[in-house]
Amino acid sequence: MQVNADLHIHSKYSMATSPKMDLPTLAAESRKKGIQLVATGDCLHPKWLLEIKKLDKEDEVFRLDGTSFVLTTEVEDENRVHHLILIPSISKAEELYEFMKPFSSNIDSDARPNVRLDGERLAEAVVEAGALIGPAHAFTPWTAMYASHDSLKGCYGDMAGKIYFMELGLSADTSYADRISELQCLTFLTNSDAHSPYVNKLAREFNRFEMEDTSFDELKMAIIREKGRKPILNVGMFPQEGKYNESACIRCFKHYTLRESVIKNWRCSCGGTIKKGVKDRVNELASYDTPRHPDHRPPYLHLVPLSEIISMALGIGQNTKGVKKEWELLIGQYGSEVAVLVDADIMDSGADERVLKTIMAFREGKVTIHPGGGGQYGRAELSGWQSACDSGKCEPQKSLFDF
User: Fold this and answer.
1) For 101-107, what is the mean pLDDT?
2) Among candidates 33, 43, 37, 35, which has minimal Cα distance to 59?
3) CB of 312 within 8 A of CB of 382?
4) 56 beta partners
5) Domain count, the chain
6) Which residues of 337-373 are buried (b: 16+ CB within 10 A; e: fewer)?
7) CA nearest neighbour of 39 among 12, 74, 6
8) Residue 230 resides in a domain
9) Calpha distance 63→23 (Å, rounded)
10) Beta-bridge partners for 74
11) What is the C-alpha to C-alpha distance for residues 5 and 8, in angstroms, rounded to an integer?
12) Which CATH number does the domain housing residue 21 bear?
């Protein structure tokens, strides 16, 4: 069976998250998105774990209203590197909590705890518990593996051989990461890192796996790529939409080339700091001029959230009643956002003609992205789509069923 999974989110107990990040809301919104398997996030937090324990459990995966949840957490190590951990059971989550508690001053207060251990020591404990660990949003310039280290071994030491996945983050895709030779053997994950359940956040990036059922063991085999289980599709934003795609000032958001940044000693003309972008960091680390995708690497499908497309088509904000009305009309007819964006014949849906034309233009690849940087998201726009395609700068989107 094919399973759509978002394996990195946060709960209402994490800093800067929506109070709506509760289990019933996550289950309902995941169904609308077309996601069958969702991370719990934050499972080391005692209060959140108590709520998770109340759910029905089968094969160490938790069920609520047709949605399955797998235990996950994100922790920050002593080098400010964030790690994503997928955990097989409640007992193992409690075991890891007890292990980390002496090394953390905030494990009971912040659901994404800081832990005074390096990546190698963390990986040793996680692997011993039968869990999986890998770098979260690996290229992000603030709190990521490649912000603090130049290699997997630099981060995980002798445990580097036990790292089976890496999360790409919003500012990178496989065309970026597959220019780095040490990553060829890893499974790449595309997850939302959602802090709210709104339609433009939850599952804005997700994975599609070939699995026999939605158990932890099946998910683990799919990530390690054993017994025919495997990832078959990564779905995510255009990397240029990420907040740190290009090098830019964190105060005024002016963009700079790498050469300009070095000449200016990473100080913007406004006095702010220029933060190195993912694109430039990849160029520093790259083993190849162009990506070399290994045979096991699935295709990467770029999607813009449906609410963003509707917002562009109508010229109004994403969180307005007009966007919500059109979104609910389309989801009500076709069942999920993925179906509306990519697969369904939507022209007779009765939705606003501007919205339908915009979705179809997107399907044909007529999109121009203005890159993000310095903490400011990039943006997609309608103007210039046709000229971009006429000049051969874009390719039509494929259907999910093409993969």
Assistant:
1) 98
2) 37
3) yes
4) 63
5) 1
6) bbbbbbbbebeebebbeebbebbebbbebbbbbebbb
7) 6
8) yes
9) 10
10) 84
11) 9
12) 3.20.20.140
**pLDDT tens digits, one per residue of 297-318:** 999 988 888 998 999 899 999 8
Asked if residue 332 has pLDDT above 70, the reply is yes
Residue with tokens 């006429």: 390
pLDDT at 382: 66
What digits encode the pLDDT tens for the residues 336-348?
Answer: 998 898 778 999 8
Residue 326 located in a structural domain: no
> What residue numbers bound the domain in which 119 lies?
2-238
Burial of 11 from C-beta contacts in 10 A (0-12 / 13-18 / 19+) = buried
Q: Is residue 196 part of a domain?
A: yes
pTM of the entire predicted model: 0.91
CA-to-CA dists, residue 217 to 47, 58, 159, 213, 225, angstroms: 26, 12, 21, 9, 12
Nearest to 327 by CA among 369, 286, 359: 359
Tell me which residue of 324, 36, 72, 14 sits closest to 198, measured CA to CA. 324
At residue 140, does pLDDT exceed 60?
Answer: yes
Q: Quickly tell me which residue has 């000049």 as its tokens.
A: 391
CB contact set of 328 (below 8 Å; sequence gap of 6+): none
Closest CA to 303 of 241, 358, 242, 236: 236
Q: What is the 3-state secondary structure (H, E, C) of 86-143?
A: ECCCHHHHHHHHHHHHHHCCCCCCCCCCECCCCHHHHHHHHHHCCCEEEECCCCCCCC
DSSP 39-85: E---TTSHHHHHHHHTSEEETTEEEETTEEEE-EEEEE-TTS-EEEE
DSSP3 helix / strand / coil % (the chain, rounded to 5) = 35, 20, 45
Mention every residue, 6+ apart, whose C-beta is less than 8 A from residue 233.
207, 208, 298, 299, 300, 301, 400, 403
Estimate to the nearest angstrom the gap between the alpha carbon of 345 and the chain centroid. Answer: 28
Q: Is 328 helix (H, G, I), strand (E, B) or coil?
A: helix
- Residue 363 located in a structural domain: no
Render pLDDT for 249-268 as a digit per residue (tens, 0 to 9).
999 999 999 999 999 999 99
**Could you report the per-residue pLDDT of 364-400, keeping only the tens digit for each?**
767 888 999 999 999 877 654 443 334 444 444 444 4
